[in-house]
Amino acid sequence: MPVQKGNHSAPKALTLGLLAGLFGMHGALASDTSGTMRVGDMHYGSPLDPTGWAPMLYRADPEGTSYLHAGMLRTPTGALYPYPPLPEAGKPLGLSDWNYAGLLQLGYLHVGGDRNAEYFRQYADWKSGAVLGLFVLDFLNRRTGQYVELRGSRLSGDDQFYRLRVGRYGHYRVEGFYRDMPHTVSTSAYPIWNGVGSTDLTLSAPLVPGASTPAQVAAVSAATPRRSIGMTRTRAGLGYEGVLYRDWIGSASITNEKRTGTRLWGGSMFFNYPFPSNGGVLETVRPIDFRTTDINLSLRNVGKVWHFLATYNGSFFRNHKDHLNFQSPFALWNVVGTPQVADIKNGQFSLEPDNDYHNLRLDLTRTLKWNGQFSMAGAWGTMRQNDALLAPTTCTGTGGIFIAPPVDYTFQCANWNTTAALSQRNANARIDTGLVDARVTFHPTAAFGWHAGLRWYRENDKTRYLAYNPLTGQYGYISENGSQGSVVPGETGIFDPNNPLYRSYMVTVRNNPFGYTDTIFELGGDWQFGRKSSLGVVYTFDHNRPKYRERKRIDDQRIKFDWVSRDVIGATVRLSWEYARRDGDRYNYNPYRQFFSESLPGFVEPVNGLPAHTVADMRKYDLSDRTESKARVIITYPWGESATLSATFYGNRDNYDATIGRQNTRTTGATVQWDWQPTPATVVNVYLGAESSRLGISNVNDADGPDNGKALGTPGQTNPNLGGPLYPFANQWWELDRESNRNGGFSLSHDFGRVRADLRYDYNGSFGHVGYRYATIGALANRVPAAVAAAAAGYPDNKYRTNTLDLGLNFAINRSVGVRLFGRYQTGAFSDWHYAGFDKTLSYDHRLYTDKGGQLHYSVSLVGVMLNLKL
Amino acid sequence: MRAISLLLAVVLCAALSAGAMLLGARDVQAQQAGGNAAPGAHAAPAGGLSQSDIARMLPATDMGAGAARAGNPHPASMSDSLATPFDAASIPANPLAPNADATGAKSCVACHTQENVQASHSLHMAAFRAGAANTGPQAACESCHGPGSAHAKDPTAPGLIIGFTHDSKSSPQTQAGVCLACHAGGARQHWIGSIHQNRGLSCTDCHNPMARLSPEGALAKSSINEVCASCHQDIRAKFNRRSHMPLPEGQMACTDCHNPHGSITKPLLKTDTVNETCYTCHAEKRGPFLFEHAPVRQNCLNCHDVHGSNQQTLLVAPIPMLCQQCHTMTRHPNDLQSAANLGSGPFPDERSMGRGCLSCHANIHGSNNPSGPKFHK
Amino acid sequence: MTSRTSLLCMLLLGAGLVADAGASEPPHTHTPPTRVVDLRRLQPVSGDAVAGAGKATVCTACHGARGLSIAPEFPNLAGQSATYLYVQLKEFHEGQRVGAVMNGQAATLGDTDARDLASYYAAMPPKPAGRADAASRGAQLYLAGDPAKGIPPCQGCHGPDGAGPRPHASSAPQPPWAAFPRLRGQSGQYLAHELHDFKTGTRAGTSNAKVMQGVAATLDDEDVQALSAYLDTL
């Protein structure tokens, strides 16, 4: 493709022009790009400069935007537009039509104090050293509208971005980018294993797999050096958007993301709590080694009457580490029977399988009479994976428990540690989705409009798996790699219709292909009252038909009123209130029989019947009857010529018709903010916010011990009802999570001429308290007097609080050189009862934790000096 | 009964829209044909020359592009000319000044000098100017503000040009109509009917094409997140919580997940469902898995408060409470955990310490292991 | 119209107009706003007209006893906006506006003097209406402007009858209307001279003058003559 006709580029600019003209074509209506259609990569910023371009916006034009009036104009809602920066036209590039402008901000950053504080570096890789604040180089051909834009920033090798855009206004754009984003999960992790980050976590001396004492484990844990757990996302992409032919605009992009690092993970070798010195509960570290390639294609045609849009999104996820093997240091012993025959010391997880995703969508919109529009979208999508399945266990030798002939609960690992033990070698998993969305809108008069919409969406899981072992003719699986069945006799996870020992065991034998079909109908009207106010009413009927769930039908009816006024004593007020009621068909507390061995031929009910799967009075919160009301007010008040006061008040109340399960949630909050820009040189902002929320649930402890009702395995345990022998009223309990959040702060920026100062303070405080009450101590996990006394004290409060002070001074040395000095001081406080006691030890009998949790207190400072150069 | 009422509603809706489409087809074309026709002769002012006379002395602001399309709703291609896409910008009709005529941008900037300086350095005008360089200054002030002659004579009379700011007398529909005349389709295809449209937002609530307030996106504030936070202050506050999406760190923007210009979902998500948005970055959770966890597959929001939460990993409630909302099964899930069971308590219990339930059920998003129906494999 | 004819139109019209019509590119060098008086927040000023009478003795030498000047090169002050007059005196005083005689005269004026004098002249009856030619080129320019040349109608800011702006009530940010002069019955020769000064940038010391600078840039000598003639007789 030749350079654009009539382009009088100087040789210097010719290269740019060539590059820019590469894809350039003439056409119509490529008004702008479709970036807001694709997920991700809309924003490139850094912890140092979250906007990603702050230095480009200084300093403000002292002339403002008009000689005709003072101050800045306001948005239709009433917020002030900020003062724009002093225009910089850029410098000419030779004698061509090309101009260029650039900016370089680089300098040195020093991090002091508790630089490893988890919440300080959660998504920021703060490091002492040289940093590239921002690099910008823009070229623009004023005549042809061709441009080249380069931007970059680097805080560290794990926290940086670079982006190049080449294009021509209204014709095309090509974009390439590379970015690294850090995510720190923990900065106080003490994993005892070798091979952290790999698929094999191994123990080294003095620890021996399956044969170490808690004391030995505790000693090793205490001696383990601290390390950080986290990952880096590395994304790179290339995209094109432009006019293809006549009015057809196309886009194509490919993005590749590599995610590498580690995350905290689990490791189960059966319970420890009911069996002192037995089982094993491990907090392990899993590897993250993902690659995702996304392909996005779109084609659209924008006519006067018809708008057409076709999009294809393909995503291809590859996990280079599809499993995690770990060695458990703890010894297991069978609670019944002798001698001990099993030696289970390893655990295994399957990690996420590779998957492919395709989604094809067509959107069609047509302008109609009465100021109307008809819009229709249809999509088909599929998610698939066919990874090779791992064997049901990795154990060797004999697992399980031998009591006395004929009571032999052992199994031969060789029959289960091979993929020949599977009914199928690959997952062959697939979910297909379908969507139809149609909407008509009419505004026959300025004062009245109405709309109707219909949405149909289906998710169909086509995965079918039967847990059948052709080697043994048994159904089921090996629970927790063999550990469960090697501690408790028979609880291996096996159902065998031909073996009296195993023919009454309830185990999962099929996967549950959950899915749903959701149909939403909506009808709404809106009325305009005068020029300043409007009222809208929308009725929504959401009809959901889930598959293989407790309900086959859930209907959510919703009415929403919204009122907008542009002049309530000068303010714009947006108010909305909605009320919703959800109900459905009969709630079947146990729809899962078909997925368990009880549905297979040859299943024999135990003597005392099958224990109730769950309490019949339970209502899962995504399916239960519910009433919901929500209200929200957003107020924007223009305060004089140069200030804006804005506020939000909001709340919601959800009540669930559930005796057991989630009972209610409520949130109430308010924010208020004051923005003031008296002159182009001064900007002030003050804000405050508060929110409180609560969530209440109820549950009932089953009679799992002689001290809180009839013990398991006794007659009557088949009764699922609350108040029955298995779920006595005496064992019911209630829990209430209350959280409150407070935040506030101010920012102040003033330009003194040679120096611009900015000062900012932010406070954030979150407090949580989980309270509980119970009918009797039968509800408690532990009912001995010491436990009851400790329970009465209640959970300690959770807390997360930060104070951050930022100060910056920008010195202008001349028109193109400046120096920025800045500092930040942050203190934080954190407590979470999940980590209570972890500061002393991570080892509790046969439990071993890796993460101590966030630092209880920290203070950290950043000091930096940057050189600003205008290129 | 419900099924019947739903069916009725659907049929009604379909019938209405089909009828309107049939009826509307001709009218729309006629309207659009008329919309660009030259204004009729108006009462001549005292001066003698009428405004339409003056208008005839001017270049047509859309260079005839509108006329070329008048008979044909599907615009003819401009690809055989030097015209840029911006030449297609016609002068919008201003319902509040039906008799005004175009005067040309030069008259506007005679008084609005500083506006011209600022706008000239905005992305919007740079794009317009590039069009002007080839074929003349078609797209200029009046392409957005409507014909300006009446305003020039009486600048403070309400509504004589299409305004986009707080005191504008032009309705939000008129304002959005101006922008959508060029910025139609694509990411804005579902603007009509979206919550932002319903709440009477105008394009200029979020954008300011008249000055370079942001280097990209012609925003009304210095960044996307600040624009959104001017109304959604409570959501911005959530990003300060213990676990949050990396917005305050500058790694993300609201528009990474949401399309403020409208979409087919209520929360303006870019994809068909909530989960598909999440899977875009968390592709490993897409699966499908051999063994699925119902609330996970149904909606990520069942357990996660995606903007920010006071719990680990954006959870809506502390573990084990989160899980015990549903898991009342016999044996270990339904015990009340208490302060006695913390690491600092007399009876430490794996169900409430550290990762709690997830210590064993680590594959809570689904397991692909044949021994993973309980997600601990 | 086919796309072919529209192309022809574009070429014909575009050829002559690319350079100057439309939103013309402003100069790239941003002139520093040194000494420019920002009138955008100016409130209407008032003073003591009676006291002003006592201070006006020297003024009458040129501007006449009734505020109507003795020669056409001097402006008529009778009935002029007090705020406008005050601003001019301040500008002469501080040097934003250059006039050999007036700079000297205003040098010794204090703020109160300027207010009093402004009020004094503002209170005088303006020059009686003349017999302006409504069909003249000047009337055309004043009332409707000339879009082909990018001349905006003067009446927008100076009022349909030249008696000053008459803004509609609005909550929008407003120009300092009181500082906009009345042109009715002004000396044509004076107006022509001032338009020339605006155009050349000689008179550019206030934010209002910045606006007039842009307007005057669209006027050629004939337009200035036509406008001055019209206003002289209005």
TrEMBL record, chain A:
Signal sequence extent: 1-30
Keyword Signal in annotation: yes
A Pfam match: MtrB_PioB
Keywords assigned: Signal
Domain of life according to the entry: Bacteria
Protein name: MtrB/PioB family decaheme-associated outer membrane protein
Organism: Rhodanobacter thiooxydans
Taxonomy of the source species: Bacteria, Pseudomonadati, Pseudomonadota, Gammaproteobacteria, Lysobacterales
From TrEMBL, chain B:
Signal sequence range: 1-20
Organism annotation: Rhodanobacter thiooxydans
Domain of life, source organism: Bacteria
Protein name per the record: Cytochrome C
Gene3D superfamilies for this protein: 1.10.287.3080, Cytochrome C3 (3.90.10.10)
Key words, A-Z: Heme, Iron, Metal-binding, Signal
InterPro entries cross-referenced by the UniProt entry: Cyt_c-like_dom, Cytochrom_c_NrfB-like_dom, Decahaem_cyt-c_DmsE, Multihaem_cyt_sf, Multiheme_Cytochr_ET, Paired_CXXCH_1
UniProt cross-references to Pfam families, sorted A to Z: Cytochrom_c_NrfB-like, Paired_CXXCH_1
GO molecular function, one term: electron transfer activity
Occurrences of domain Cytochrome c (ranges): 338-377
Keyword Repeat: no
